Amino acid sequence: MADNLLCDLCGLKIGAQVWTLRLPTQEIRFCCEGCKGIYQMLNNFDGTEPPPVSGATSSEGEK
Question: In sequence order, what DSSP letters do the residues of the chain get, joined into one string?
Fold first, then answer.
């Protein structure tokens, strides 16, 4: 399934469980919840993920 995917933080192969973080311009994939958490911490995410790109339910917010 995810045999050829690599973690966007540490570069290890991603196993059966893929942890993802959806940003407005891309989807970032991680091998574990730890890598996802470290990425969020380093990039000052507050724990809530931005809405997926395909979701057209945005209201005026960020300026």
Answer: --TT-B-TTT-PBP-S--EEEE-SS-EEEESSHHHHHHHHHHTT--SPPPPPTT-----S---
For residue range 20-51, list pLDDT tens digits in order. Answer: 998 889 999 999 999 999 999 998 876 565 54
Tokens at 56, concatenated: 């057209």
Quick one: 38 exposed, middle or buried, by C-beta within 10 A (0-12, 13-18, 19+)?
middle
How many Å apart are CA 57 and CA 41, to the nearest integer?
Answer: 26
Task: Give the Cβ contact number of residue 60 at 10 Å.
Answer: 5
Check residue 47 and give its pLDDT. 57
Give the whole-angstrom CA distance, residue 36 versus residue 49: 11
